[in-house]
Amino acid sequence: MAESLLSKCGMLLSILAALMVITLGGLGQSAAQPIDLPFTGPSSSTQQNESTPQKDSASQNDSASSEGSDTGDTPAPEVPSVQVEPVEPGLAHAQEQLEENYADFLVREPLHFDLSLVDNLLSDARIVWNEARVMRADLSRIDPWRLVDWAVPILIALIFGVLFILFDRQALRMAQRTQLFIHADLSPWVTSVLRSAVLLLGRVLALALLIALSYFPIQATFSSAPWTLVLTDALWWLLAYRAAHALIVTSLRLSPVDPGATAHYLRLERFALITLRISLGYILVLVALRNFGYRPDAIGFVAFAFRLTLALAPIYLFFARDAVLALLPDHTSSPLYGIVRRGISANYYGMLAVTIALLLFNAAGFVHAATFILARGYTLIVLVTLSFSAAERLRAFVAQKSEEAQEASDQGDEEASASPLYKAVEQWTLAVGGLLVVVFALRLLALYEPVVTLLKIPLLSVGNVAISIHSLLTVGLIVAATILSIRLFKAVLNAKIYPAFNVDVGVAYAVNTLINYALIVVAFVMSMMALGVQPSAVMVVLASLGVGIGFGLQNLTENLISGFILLFGRAVKKGDFISVNDVYGRVEAVGARSVVVRTPDNYDMLIPSKDIVSGRIINWTFHDSIVRVHIPIGVAYASDPRQVEELLLKAAARDSNILEHPAPDVWLVGFGDNSIDFELLVHFDCRTITERKLRGKFNFVLWEVLHEAGIEIPFPQRDVHLRSVDFLPEINRQLGFARHPSEAADAPRNQTRDGSDAD
Questions:
Q1: Helices in 531-635 by DSSP H: which ranges?
Q2: Mean pLDDT for all residues in the chain
Q3: What is the DSSP string of 582-608?
Q4: Which helix (H) or strand (E) segment is 665 a member of?
Q5: Which of 637, 633, 666 is nearest to 649 (CA)?
Q6: Least buried of 297, 339, 382, 451, by fewest C-beta within 10 Å?
């Protein structure tokens, strides 16, 4: 709702601005100049300023080298100096551009008439009256061809009128029938705009055909006589009137914002149409006077009266404040719309008074200043309003599409990757649109060239490189564009290209990684060039970095090369499940330096790429994700092996994580000391569950099945046998733990069970 209100407000403001520009035609010339390319080095003035320090430094170096040669010492290497550049030349240049753009701002144009106009008009009226009396007195002496010259324009005008009536009715009927079949699924607002455009085309089609006829054969036949020029210009202005009339009616009557304020809309419509008709009348009079070559002072007076009428017409709006504010109802929830409406409501009378004052200044001859402020000011308001409206519409559209994509993702749809694409397009559109709005606003206010000149003033000079705010902003734009481009390319590839060609996940990730690095390298080179560094210097820096990497960063180089081997060799891809050094996890990213593995315990393990390339790893999903696992189980010797086999297969059927195909199998692997050893072989999808988790969950099921069947799971048992020997009593006696053998024979008779002497 808020977006449609803002767009409608912008449409009305644009209609008002267009009406002012039409009625004040030729009163303001834009100071449009070609846009400077953003990737430029230091300006010529900067280079000139730098030439003197360079010569001085060169002379100092020469003198230093000569001194070094005299003393026999080795001269010190030249170090680039950092210098602070003066800003006065750049400020002067920006001031000159600003003065050039606003040179005619306060220039007053002559009105082209004075008080003698009344005498001239009375004199012309007496001449016409006398000629009319002479012609009436002697009609027989009038040249018949002169009457034909008068009759032909009248006859052609009548023919054009008849053709206009016939063509206009047919075109309007055809447009009305056509617009009923127009429907856009994108938005009801788009449907309304398209239907209004078709109706507008039907309104102007007949006039467009008559304009073509006025050029050929009318002007071609009568050699561009003044009346033919008047006819053509009048048709053009009638075409503009029809278009403006259709826009006003469409905006206010056919699609009102608040149906309860219809009376206010009709009131504003009457005011707009009356002003439009008065303007058309003045314009037709001016067209006739100029094409027939009448007095310049009379033309100037009519133009002054026209501008004065337009200046006084908005006085009516002082008494129609409620009608104007009815175009902007306050029952919406948009914060931006609320700010706009409150600002217009609080400053309504002030804005209207300023508009009337500027129109009066325009009528008084200050055409450039009045037109500049009115036309460009209203255009800027419309631009900002429409920009925010478009941004809110885009955000709402992306939010809706992202929600639909999320719902599709929950349902398992493969098109769920379209959500990042919509977000990337939104970011690109907002960034580019915002930049264009800023540039257009600066050009609209004739401030673009002075601002760019100020930003290009060099602040620091490092050797031959001049650093300015413009170069730093350019680097920032390059970095931002690179980030947005990476996101957009990846989103387009993931959403459209890869699914269409059924590209593997690992290959897609490798291509995305290469695109990232390529765009980063391009952005780095462009940033250096934007700072004024020559491409040869950039190549030298890259070569130096290569040498440094080769000798000083051997481990990093190995990891980088191993990373590219992994990216192209596809031994390990994003999404694979691998085991490295007894660590099991899912590959989250395959970078140029390391591989990121997410473990089941939800921590990330960064493994250097060279360890994976040169080491031994287990890739559980290299060909597919179906893995077989051996689950050992031992039962007591009293159990029936065939019954145990059936029970193990029954337990495997109960676990939903165990696949039915390939079917589970049971092996009797051996006879242990305490149990009969079996192995249950089952298959599972390692992407859904880990091996340890499968074992841990399946042991519960296995215990329940064996316990229900009464199958015993044995535990280790040991039997200890003690054997007496002849030397044990002697050893015990010597150690004091027993009596002499001759005494020990009578001991059982003399002691009780607890070892005490009997009475």
A1: 535-552, 554-569, 609-614
A2: 77
A3: TEEEEEEEE-SSEEEEE-TTS-EEEEE
A4: strand 665-671
A5: 666
A6: 339
Please tell me which residue, 184 or 627, carries the higher pLDDT value: 627
| Burial call 556-570: b when 16+ CB within 10 Å, e when fewer | eebbbebbbbbbeeb
* 672: helix, strand or coil: coil
Q: What are the pLDDT digits (tens) for 53-97?
A: 444 443 444 444 444 444 444 444 454 555 666 667 777 878 888
For the beta sheet containing 604-608, the strands, ordered from the edge strand earlier in sequence to the opposite edge, are 604-608, 594-598, 583-590, 577-580, 618-619
Write down the pLDDT at residue 148: 77
Kindly state the average pLDDT of the residues 359-388.
85
Task: Give the chain's length.
Answer: 759
- From 424, 444, 380, select the one nearest 512 (Cα to Cα): 424
Buried b (16+ CB within 10 A) or exposed e, 444-483: bebbbbbbbbbbbbbeebebebbbbebbeebbebbeebbe
260 CB-contact burial (10 Å; exposed 0-12 / middle 13-18 / buried 19+): exposed
Residue 121 has pLDDT above 70, yes or no: yes
Residue 393 has a pLDDT of: 78
Q: Give the burial string for 183-215 (b: 16+ CB within 10 Å, else e).
A: eeeeeeeeebbebbebbbbbbbbbbebbbebbe
Scanning 140-225, the segments in alpha helix (DSSP H) are: 144-179, 188-213, 220-222
SS3 readout for 469-488:
HHHHHHHHHHHHHHHHHHHH
What is the torsional sign of CA 553, 554, 560, 563?
A: negative
Distance CA 658, CA 733 (A): 68
Whether 14 has a pLDDT exceeding 60, the answer reads no
- Report which DSSP code applies to 631: E
Residue of 108, 103, 207, 119 lying closest to 164 (CA atoms)? 207
